[in-house]
Each structure stands twice: as C-alpha cells, then as structure tokens.
Amino acid sequence: MPLLDIRNLTIEIDTPQGRVKAVDRVSLTLNEGEIRGLVGESGSGKSLVAKAILGMKKDNWRITADRMRMDGHDLLSLTQAQRRRIMTRDIAMIFQEPNSCLDPSVPVGEQLIDAIPWRVFDGKWWQVFHWRKRHAIALLHRVGVKDHKEVMNAYPHELSVGVCQKVMIAMAIAIKPRLLVADEPISAMEATTQAQLLKLLDKMNKVGNTTILLISSDLSAIGNLADSFSVMYCGQMVETGSREQVLTQPHHPYTDALLDAIPDFSGRLAHKSYLNPLPGSIPPLQHLPIGCRLGPRCPYAQKQCVKTPPLLQNKGHHYSCHFPLNLEESRK
Amino acid sequence: MLNYIMRRLNLLLFTLLMLSLLAYCIDVTLVNPRADGLVGGYFRFLARLLEGDLGFSSSSNQPVAELIRLHLPATVELCLAALLLAMLMGITLGTLAALNQGRWVDRIILGLSLLGYSMPAYWLGMLLIMTLSMDLGWLPSSGQLSLLYEVKPVTGFTLMDTWLSHSPYREAAFRDALAHLLLPAVVLAIVPTTEVIRLVRGAMINVLKQNYIKAAFSRGLSAPRVMFKHGLRNALPPIVPMLSLQFGSLVTAAVITEVVFSWPGMGRWLVNSIQARDYAAIEGGVLVIACFLVVVNLLSESLTTLLYPAKRKDLYGQED
Amino acid sequence: MARKIKVYPEIKVPSALGQTWAAYRQDSLAMLGLWGLLFLLATLCFGPMMVSFDPLKQDPNALLLPPSWTQQGTIEYFFGTDDLGRDLLSRLVHGARLTFGYALVATLVALLCGCLLGLIGGMSRGLLASTLHHVLDPLLSIPSLLLAIVLVALLGPGLPNVTLAITLALIPQITRATYNAVRQELGKEYVTAARLDGSPPYRILRWAVLPNILDTLVAQTTRALSMAILDISTVSFLGIGAQAPAPEWGNMLAGGLELIYVASWNVTLPGLAIMLSVVITNLVGDGLRNALQKGMD
C-alpha cells in the first residue's frame, strides 16, 4: 500500500475575478521510502499541493479529491485534532526561506527543544532530566551543526540561511516522520549549502526510511537525489515517472523543454549560441487555455491539443499528451 | 547600549528645554511680565523651576507646586486604573478580532471600537451616571470616597490610603474607594481600549501572516499554543512604545472625565484654573503634565529596547 | 444571441482612480458613511434655511417640551425644546455649522500647513529636517487637547480662538505623519533607482512619493477631522470655547447637564449628533484608505 495516495486533487480558489482552478485533477502516489521530486515553474501549483496535504488551507480555498489518503487515513475528512495528531507523528514539513520560519523572538535552541516530542524518549527514567536538551544537541550534531552551543543560544536573525534550514531539518527529524514535505528547501542558497542540505535529506531517507516529497522549481538541482519525478504545469500534472524515464526519455514536451533549459556546460554549447527557452510565459490563472494548458506555447501543438489529453501510462511512466515524444510507435 | 542611552538622554534634555521655553512664553506674556531682558529673565525662570518653585496660584494664594502635589496622585491613580483596564480589554479583544479576521466576531469588535472612539468621553460619562448611578443606584457618581469615611492621606492614592489606614472600617472604605474608581476608570479607558484593539489586531494579523506561524502550525501545534507561544510574544513588543503614546490621550481624556465625575485630580483643577484665569496654575500644571508624559515615553522606550534584543538591532540599524 | 466574444485573453486594467472607486463602492459601510457625509455637508450648507425656528428664539410657552415621538411632544418642535423654550432641532442644525463646519476649517488649514511642512522636511536633509524633528517631538508630547486648552487660555475663549488653537494643535501631528511617510517612501529601492536615473527631487516627489503617501494623508485627514470635532465640542463643554447662547453641540451638552433628570433629550441628542458625525468621518476615512490600498495593488 502506498504511503500517500492522492487521486484527482482539485483546488479552487475564490478570487475577486471569480473562482480559479489553481490545481486541476492532480494525482500523486508516493511509496514508502521513496524520494519524489515535484517539479514545475513557480505558480504551477506545487506548493498548493503540499499545503493541501498538510491541511494548511485558507478560507477561500475549496479542496476536492476522489481520494486523498495518508497511510490509511483519509486526509480530507479528518477533524482538527486527528489532523494534528497525524501532523505531530507522521508528517513534517520544511519551507523555503528558513530564517522566516523560526520565531525571531525565541532562541533557536528553545524552539528546537520544543519540537522534540516526549514519545521519542527511550532512556531510563533517571535520564529524563535535561534529556530534551541533550537530545536537541544530538539532533544538531546529526544535521551537521558542530558548534551547538552557539547555535542553541542564537536568535534566528543571527544565523545564516543554511544553518537555519539545518535546524528546521533537525526539528523535522525530531518527530521521526514517515513523510517529509520539503517545499523548495534549497532555493536562493549557495551551491555548497544546497549540496549539504540535499545530502542531509538523502541521509534522512536512507537512515530513517523517511519518504520525501521534494518540491523544487529546478530540475537539475534535485536531479541526482530524487528517485522519481512528477512534473506540473499550470496546475496540471503533465508527467510522472522514474528518474531515468523522465530525465532521459521525457514524453511530454514541457518536461523536454525543462530539460533543454538546463544549460549544458560539457562543451557542446557553441560560443554565443542561443539557449533554448520555451516561447511565451505562464498564462495567468484567470485565462488558462482550454485543452492542454501548454498548447499555445508547445512547439509540437496540433489541432487536437484543444482537447484535454488524458493521463496515459506506459511502463509506470505517466504522461498527458496527445503527441508524446521519445516513443517508438507514436500514437496518432 | 551606552551610545543609545546617551542619545535618548540628549533628546530628553532637548525636549525639556523646549517645554521650558514654552512655559516661559506663557510666563512672560501672562503671569509676570518682565522688564529686565528676555534672555536673563529666562535663566532666572529656569533657576526658579529647578528649585521647584512654580509661583503662586492667584485664585487660592497657595504655591502651585503644593497644589499640584495635592492633585497629582488622584489623576495618576485614575490613569493607571484606566490603563490597566484598557490593556486587559484591548489585548483580549484585539487578539480575538485578529484570530477571527473578517468574520462576525471581528466585525462586532471593530464596530464597537469605532463607536467607542467616536463617542465624546464626557457624554458617555453623563449617560453612565444617568443610568448606573441615578436610575439604578449601583455605583457612586462623583468624588473619590464617600464622606462617611475619613482617611488620612499618606500616599495620596485613595486606594492605598484606605488599605493602609487603621480605621475599623478599613475594608468597607477600600471597597467604597474601588466603587468610586470604577465608573470614571471605565469611561477613561474606552478611548485607549479602542486604540489598543486597533494596534493589537494589526500587529497580530501581521504576525499571523509570517512563515514561522505557518511552520508552527505545520508542526501540529494547537491554535492556542501557537498564539501564546509565538503570536503574542511577537505581536506585543512592537506596540509597547505606541501604547505609551496612548498615555498622552489618556491624560487628556482624564481632564474631561475628572470634570464629569468631580474627581479631585489635576484635570479638574486645571479647568477650574483656566476658568478663573489663574495663569500661574495653568503654566505649572501643563509643564508638570508634559514633563510627566515625556518621562513616561522615555522609560517605556528604553524598557522595550532593553527587553527585546531584535528591536535593539533595528534601532542601531536605523540611526547609525 | 448577440454576445461579445473576447478573442484575446486580456486582463483589462482600469485606471487607479477607477479601481479605487470600484473598491470603495464594494464596501457598503463606507458607502453609508459617504451618504452620511453628504447629508452632513448639505445640512451644513442649506440646513439653517430649512428649519423653521431661530436657534436663539425663546418660546416661553414651550419650555422643556419633549421630542415629538413621546406622549407630550408636538410635531412643531420635532426634537423638543430646552429650558428656555428654544427649538432643539434648529439648534442642532445650526450647531452643525459651528461644530462640524469649524472642525472642517481647522482640519483643512492644518492639513495644508502640516503637509507642506512634512513634505519640505521629508525631502530635505541635514539641519532643516533635524530641526523639524526636534521641534516637533516636544510639541507631540503634549496631547492635542491639552495644547488647545493652553492656547485658548492664552488667546481667550471664543469659537474662532478655539478653532485656531485646534488647528495649531493638529499641525504637529500631521507634519510628523507626512514626514515619516515621505521618509519611508524615500528609503525604498525604486526611489533609489529613480534617483540613479537622474530624476530631480520634484519628479521624485510628484511621481514616486505623493501617490504612495496618499493613504497616510487620508488617514491623517479623517483622524484630524474626528479629533477636531471632538476637541471643539469638548473645549466648549468645559466652558472655555463657544460661549453660552451659541448652539454649539458641546455647549448644548453642558447646558443640558443640569437638566439631565428632567429633560434627558437635551443631553442625548447633541451627544448623538457629535458621535454620528465622528462615526461618519471615520467610516469614510476607513473606506477610502482600504479602497486606496486595494487600488494600488
């Protein structure tokens, strides 16, 4: 049984211009111990999916889904208390801009200690004294923060982005979650910090068998980490498949374009040649094209593309396109 | 830190200097016109002030400083009671409104605070006297203490004096003083309460938008826990200095409230002095009130800076 | 069916002013305030011509007549009369001119002076700005009503003097708010960008600063107006503003104070008039500010 099973998740948002379908029938299935990369441009609805999983909805959202289950619990019909129980036990989340996710008026150590639940206590009773503090220090060591004394006493604004994200990860590890949702955890950071953090996530996955949903707008940055990818465009899932399938043989033109957009520095790029961006820009949510939403920008679009393409499957590789690329017998 | 304190003290000195100049203007034009040069007169005026000599009241022929000493405690007592009330009600209601932003609870609280702000304080006082004290007879309508009780003033604060007195009716007197205090304090608290509601609601809504609140919720903490642990803790510090600014409007409102409730404080005395054209009293009263406000502002600002390190960093960043 | 079909998906962006007005109209409370304000202004201009009595005329046959909706009331004296037999309705209508009208004048003059000073101080640097800063601080530490009371004490009682005093007391606040808003706006990156492009100060003031401090100005105006209304009536209530026969609302309240048991309408109605005019001012101000903020997004 998959750990997270979402079928046809739709999120509609009431805006002054009317109701907008920000996420349209997205399906996502995560198996235990998997690292899934969820890729798409900003505004494609990746973060909305993550927020829907955690139940962080706003008043003007309407979330519907045929199925949305986490480990047997239906996430849509939970009461507040049940949801909190699941969130404190099974799901953890880390965000972008980690500095702003830590309370600026409380020392980091205190916040970390607060995040440690008593249920992970496994020592003898006489070790209870100061156990949470010791555990917090151990957690900091585990995420690669060496000078724990300094970090524990510091306020968030005194720490660098990378360290803050490490603390956030430490908080996530503290509850020993089964699912970690990482919403663009490495955006706007230095390359070395990014590498460290990704390595940390990988370790978390290998050691703790934590399933990770890794959301990013940069396919290349998480290319080596994720086992499989889901690609979103304008609130629709356009392609899902294993790393090899998606990276080497993308069926959907948008994935292809994403891969093309990564500059190739291996020397084949001619001096002063053009890069390959997709023409046009993301349409505003109020004016989505009918049919395949990539339609007007797609270099391979045909007449048939005004009809919404169904989600097709080929050897566990899902895609929604009438004219998939890299297939031997191209369908008509 | 030392740098900061020096700068504040510098500002304080300058402010007090300006105030003394203002008082001197009143002094020269109305109280005792001088022939012996304005500059020299000013220095003599300053020297007199520093000795605590504020001149003689023309209506009662008593030294102004003595009169102020007599009237100030009642006003301070009233203001402190009102401030306490305003804080309690304002923070509670403001937080409540912010949590229910846009829903009917929020609207009712906002509507009530708009009404409270728009009501002339003296009118509300009159209505309350009319209903609560006259028609229903629940609360006394004027004065600080029933004439039945004779209490020797020790501190000048009636509540403390009744508590400290050794008369056999100590508790009854204390309760009576409290009953006398309640109505004026409520009337006086209305305007600052609306201001506190506005400030707390704004700050709280701002804080609720922050990522760390979302992160705290995503960790599965319950709403009240998030509020107390992360919400109020971040929303309140920035508004503390603004609350101290409320003290100014509080003192103003106190002038009127005292007149309506015949409260024997500075405000009533000041208004009586104005009506009697007792300029020395006006000059002294305004000077003392203004100095009092300046010092309160300074104290509250320094306290905020000391207590909240993030704010301290801001201050340095701004000024240097 | 003739339907206009939009071929190109365009988002039509109305002008900032149009958006503001559209947002304002959405807000029913603010619209209510606007109608109230119009009514108040109409009363201000034409009210005295409409009422049937002279506000000072005393009718010895109609002393302390209650309002018309009670048993003993007559329709002739709609709101009843006071202890000298003066018609309360015409007094209230004439009072609108004294209380609201003078408050409006005080606010407008204070706004003009305060904005000018604030803009000059905000755009300049060095000695001028610092002087302004240091002169304003002590003035701000004295509450406006207290300042007004002191000024009245200096100038002598009377409504024109009260108006002058309140104007003078309002100026520091408006100056301070404008100054701060200008400073805040000048600190933003796009102003720096405009400056690096070589925009002269006037251009920056006109195109970058003014449109963006508009909501501060609106907020200050309504705040000042409601304070002016309250202050004028308060000073008159204390007996150092408008003098006895004048139908100023605060003055009427003070007169009604002795009648509170026999003729409570002499207290409730003028108080209600003050409260309503302040509520209306604030409703319009809040609505305008929200609409401006929405219009800017």
TrEMBL record, chain A:
UniProt cross-references to Gene3D superfamilies, sorted A to Z: P-loop containing nucleotide triphosphate hydrolases
Entry's localization field: Cell inner membrane
Keyword Nucleotide-binding tagged: yes
GO molecular function: ATP binding
Keyword check for Nucleotidyltransferase: no
Keywords linked to the UniProt accession: ATP-binding, Cell inner membrane, Cell membrane, Membrane, Nucleotide-binding, Transport
Domain ABC transporter: from-to ranges: 4-259
CDD domains: ABC_NikE_OppD_transporters
Family (UniProt): Belongs to the ABC transporter superfamily.
Protein name: ATP-binding cassette domain-containing protein
Protein source organism: Pseudaeromonas paramecii
Automatic annotation (TrEMBL), chain B:
InterPro entries for the chain: MetI-like, MetI-like_sf
Membrane-topology annotation of the record: Multi-pass membrane protein
ABC transmembrane type-1 domain segment(s): 72-300
Keywords: Cell inner membrane, Cell membrane, Membrane, Transmembrane, Transmembrane helix, Transport
ATP-binding keyword on record: no
Main localization (coarse): membrane
SUPFAM superfamilies: MetI-like
Gene3D superfamilies xrefs: MetI-like
TM segment ranges: 80-99, 177-200, 239-264, 284-308
Subcellular location: Cell inner membrane; Cell membrane
Transport as UniProt keyword: yes
PANTHER family, sorted: DIPEPTIDE TRANSPORT SYSTEM PERMEASE PROTEIN DPPB-RELATED (PTHR43163), PUTRESCINE EXPORT SYSTEM PERMEASE PROTEIN SAPB (PTHR43163:SF4)
Family: Belongs to the binding-protein-dependent transport system permease family. OppBC subfamily.
Protein name per its UniProtKB record: ABC transporter permease subunit
Organism of provenance: Pseudaeromonas paramecii
UniProtKB/TrEMBL annotation, chain C:
InterPro entries for this protein: BP-dependent_transpt_permease, MetI-like, MetI-like_sf, OppC_N
Compartments, as annotated in UniProt: Cell inner membrane; Cell membrane
Domain ABC transmembrane type-1 residue range list: 96-285
UniProt protein name: ABC transporter permease subunit
Pfam families per record: BPD_transp_1, OppC_N
Lineage: Bacteria, Pseudomonadati, Pseudomonadota, Gammaproteobacteria, Aeromonadales
Annotated SUPFAM superfamilies: MetI-like
Topology in membrane: Multi-pass membrane protein
Keyword rRNA-binding: no
Family to which this protein belongs: Belongs to the binding-protein-dependent transport system permease family. OppBC subfamily.
